[in-house]
Specification:
homodimer; alpha+beta; Trna Endonuclease, Chain: A, domain 1; five-stranded mixed beta sheet; 4 helices
Chain lengths: 131, 131
């Protein structure tokens, strides 16, 4: 996927959170800066979601290092680590960091199938937070 | 002040937070997007600071609208609203949103003098959070 489409997906999710009563920011240069980070930070009712966005067609490999950075960032911030996965023509799925599956070597994998089996949709993501 | 110098100041503050054990992000397009936002979000020990950065020589006027946006964002997010003010050749001062002074009309003002009288330095800002 192109960087441009990734950015467009991030902006779409930004507005989805905002329209549902969250305060939300998109991180500048989250893919390039040297300190652990995430793509979006969304907060509501004292809870914070640290969301890493992926726009995929079928699947994507994620380096262990990136997983560790998201975990470190979230623990320090006091946020819940999530992957926000936009699957082409299928919409958004949300997967908690600990449900991302190990793949070959030290890589991790996110696929449409994994997102469908283990993830939740946006409505269920935010419903969970209202509890 | 130029936009470039403002961005440099934001990055400097980003690293200052990180070096002191905070997870921190800088917001993409915080000055241009249409939803309330802040320049930096810094979290530690379950507390979140929503920081609007200003790099000034002497003083700067801030529109009431901007003040209201920072307040709205922070309330929704569950963050403390702060101004991080870098005064040229004088370093950083931190002023809680409610200590920014009213100026002419509906504007607000931040000056070196106000920052010195009512603000805290970085060490005291983070000391306050450890309590």
């Amino acid at each position: 996927m192109s960087k441009k489409k990734g950015t467009r997906a991030e902006r779409e999710l930004l507005h989805l959170f905002w329209d549902n009563g969250f305060a939300v920011t998109r991180t500048a240069g989250s893919g390039s800066i040297t300190i652990p980070s995430c793509d979006l930070l969304a907060g509501k009712n004292g809870k914070t979601l640290a969301v890493e966005c992926k726009f995929i067609k079928n699947s994507i490999y994620i380096k262990e290092e990136r997983i560790n950075e998201l975990r470190e960032f979230s623990e320090k911030f006091g946020a819940e680590p999530w992957f926000g996965i936009k699957v082409m023509n299928k919409g958004w799925f949300f997967l908690p960091l600990d449900k991302v599956e190990k793949s070959k070597g030290s890589n991790y994998i996110i696929s449409h199938d994994i997102a469908k089996r283990k993830g939740v949709n946006f409505d269920n993501l935010i419903l969970d937070l209202e509890k």
